[in-house]
Design goal:
307 residues, alpha/beta, Rossmann fold, Dihydrodipicolinate Reductase, domain 2, 2 domains, seven-stranded mixed beta sheet, 36% helix
Length: 307
Amino acid sequence: MVGSIGIMGMSEGNGHPFSYSSIINGYSPEGLANSGWSGIYDYVRRRHASEFGFPGWKVTHAWTQYPETTEKLCAACRIETAVEDYRDFLGKVEAVIAARDDFESHFEMAQPFLKAGMPVFVDKPLSLDIAQLRELKPYLESGQLMSCSGMRYARELDEPRANFASYGKVKLIRGAIVLSWEKYGVHILDAVLGMTAARPVSVRMLPADHASAVIRLDDGATMQIDALGETARTFHVEIFGTERNGAFDITDNFSMFRRMLWEFTTSIRSGKPAIPAEKTLEVMRVLIAGRQSCNEKREVSLDEIAL
């Protein structure tokens, strides 16, 4: 029996509906080549056929804000049905993926499906609205809702995830990313907080031409994340410990997305959260604290962001 997934939404400059759907369904070379997402076509066509698909799952329905884009998505990713309104997924699919990164839209899009008892994956970041996060918290706790950056599962970070203790006492972790703190800070936060037991305590934004956040961790280490704005593609992590150091450039989108989607589909079948709710909410609290620090020009404790 095949479980059906509906994929919805589109954000400017973000091809996640095409990436995610091609990983789950496979893809039409001609359709994806003509989709306007040449970067996605280039990296998926380098993968072996065995790396596509999840037993028992298929994206069967699609919606974006733009009918022409929805048509291209269906042609590229072998999706059978395009709908005119994402709420038309109700009663027709078993699970939904909100594959757009404008976090302001996430709550409204996810709510009808969560209320209907359906599993939902929401692209990063989940929400930076405290009231919304409080409403979403029970769904995270039950495992009905999942949201994260694929970088939580980045292949390039397999070594430090498995051997973090070998770095000794970690004193500094640095990360650099493109674009904004609100939308892209989640990448480094998920990547780093997914491999260390240390938890964030406070956030202070530094005076700089770009967003530069200093995060104190409860083990005494410092994390610094620089969101560099418009710049060359950058997803970089550095770890400095008393025993060894490490530097990692994260480039393999396919592997991280596939692992993330595997976690989502596995959690649907198990009924258990793929990520503990407090971990997802912790990342959102750091993003909110960073924005508050920028506005108020002070260090903001995570204890101030109560969920």
